[in-house]
Amino acid sequence: MRTSPLSRSLHPMRGIGLTLAGVVLLTLSDAAIKWSTATLPFGEALFIRTLFVLIPIAVIVWWRGTAVSLRIVSVRSLALRALFGAGSTFLIVASLSLLPIGEVLTLVFVTPILVTALAPFLLGEHVGWHRWFAVLSGFAGVVVMLQPDAGSFRFAALLPLAAALIASLRDIVTRRISGRESSLAILAFSIVGLILASLATAPFGWREVSLSEVAVAGGSGLLFGIAHYLMIEGYRFAEASLVAPFRYTNLLWAPLVGYLFFGEIPGLVLLAGAPLIVASGLYTGGRRVRRPRSCAFARCGRRWAAEKRSGANCAQEEEQEDLRRRH
């Protein structure tokens, strides 16, 4: 059943609930793939996981009858996005095999901060000094977590940062193509690209897997697919500015999951650096959401002044503008 765009803001609690559920499932998915990499080469574990991601996608396509949304406009753009997506995913999975899950996910949350820093150069977007200050604050949190002068610097900690950088390039490409490519086409093309990329690691140590190993890695894929669907649905029922901060609850679940399943205890470095990264990400994201809304209202006000007798509905126009921005 399709949801009317105008009905999304009528169910904010449903949007928040869907987002929270998606975040929990996504954290469990990361924990499952981390568990798999303890016994399987991470390329093989990632291949199994990605195959199982296709199952919830296929079910959603069948249930909604939206196969037409898989139509592709530009193979080159989707291939570039898939390349960046595969690179960031490989690095994240490699990071999970080497580092505590809470530390990895915290450093990966630098992605929106990097997108803000790169946007003026790659997208031509304006970034004010408030957001630049937030970007620098986020980078300060990264420096705290890396401890470059503490004698305990770990090069493995650079892996999630590299993943965040590549993911920011993926998100920038996504912004460029989202106006002409459907979300389903972008997701499906990226999944197929990730399957092919992980399959290319087969000559490097793949082995026969047990049923339990398939269950764990495959379960990670199922959780991953369902989690992203729930978070996408969350944006259908509530404003982006409302639900986006709840994605950071991932940083609450990750240390808990790390402690329960892997015996990982968050250190003082994580507790000191994470708040800076979270605050920076929330501020830069919040500013990006609020500015387009204010611009939309300004455009609507000008049109109302010019067309007083037309009876134009300002709220409806703003809602339509918001819908075009998101899709």
Overview features:
single chain, mainly alpha, 13 helices, disordered C terminus, disordered N terminus, 327 residues
Provide a descriptive summary of the structure in words.
It is a single chain. This protein is an all-alpha fold and about 325 residues long. The chain is built from 13 helices and no strands. The protein starts with 11 loop residues before the first helix and ends with a helix. The longest helix is centred in the last third of the chain and has 39 residues, at about 270-305. Helix 1 (about 10-35) runs antiparallel to helix 9, helix 3 packs antiparallel against helix 7 and helix 5 (about 110-120) packs across helix 12. It has one domain (about 5-290). Mean pLDDT is about 80; it is low at about 1-10 and about 290-325. Helices cover about 75% and strands about 0% of the residues.
